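Cross-check.
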Amino acid sequence: MKAKSYAVPAADKPLEYYEFDRREPTSKDVELEVYYCGICHSDIHTARGDWGEVTYPCVPGHEIVGVVTRVGEAVTEFKPGDRVGVGCMVNSCGECSACKQGYENSCFKETVWTYSSTDPIDGTGTKGGYSTIMVAPEHFVLHLPESLDMASAAPLLCAGITTYSPLRNWKVTKGSTVGIIGLGGLGHMGVKYAKAFGAEVWVITSSPDKAEAAKSYGADGVIISSSEKDMESAAHRFDFLLDTIPKTYRHISNSSIYTVRFVWLVPLSLCPVIIRWSLLMGSALSRDLALVALKRRRKCCRIALSIPFCQR
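Predicted model, tokenized:
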């Protein structure tokens, strides 16, 4: 079936109008009309070839919301007219231990990304949500509550789950003191989630002009990372730190703000290592990147490094 889209024809070219044939749904697939698709910075990285070889034309988009138009005969959870979302994955082997435990983002065989992957159904390249039609297996489609505005909900499928997952996985709750490092697309969601979980929330930022915005999102306070006074006053304060900065910076064990002796914040360039390095208990999605702090003499502060390009 014909789909209309916006695609990147080459790494150095802008988006342009593009039509392509979207495959027909199988018995286990859901077809949806795309109403909205968020713009994630990973769309730009992929389009520009920053993360490896890309087959062009590339149709980005993995923050997809829309309405079901057709379902396969084996689909049981969805029907035409349902409001739904699709994130950054559209398939996996479904048989390895990772998949069976619900970690399809770390499939030992191959995770099939929403775009710039090979679709195991027909061997074509997957194409994302900058298009009018989307087809995905039922298992990778999510119900969208009627209470959520569709346009506003789209970023929850990437930035939202990227920050929600580590906070929930590490049981941030009332009584926790949480530091959110960085206040961008990820950081502001981290603040809202942590506050909703009942935590005391502080934003750690290098931008003093973001202080009011941080408080408007629910932050209890703001620490300016360039201020030695601010950093010293925050020494040993936090139970959990969510790092949303996608850049390499000073090794954090040099700072007294953290209660751990040894914590390794991994730069973006090491993402492929994180995916398979079980010691780090993480992956290049939202499943808690670098959630490792070596426990020494005192209570350990847990650190989650969120690389802003995927979703679990």
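The chain has two domains: 2-157, 159-305. Residues 159-169 form the longest helix (11 residues). Passed to J.P. for a second look.
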